[in-house]
Amino acid sequence: MKRQYTRPTLRIERYDGVYLEDGSDREVTGVAAAVLRNAGDRPVEYACVRMEDGALEFVVTGLDAGAIIVVPASGMAAYEDRTWYGCSAQAAYAPSMDLAEDQVSVREAEDGSLEVSNLSGAEIPCLRIFYKFYLDDQDLYVGGITYNVKLLGLASGETRTVTPSHCLAGYSRVVMVKTYDEEN
Question: Which stretches of the chain are assigned E, i.e. beta strand?
Answer without folding.
Answer: 11-19, 26-37, 44-51, 56-63, 68-72, 87-93, 104-108, 114-118, 124-135, 140-154, 159-162, 172-180
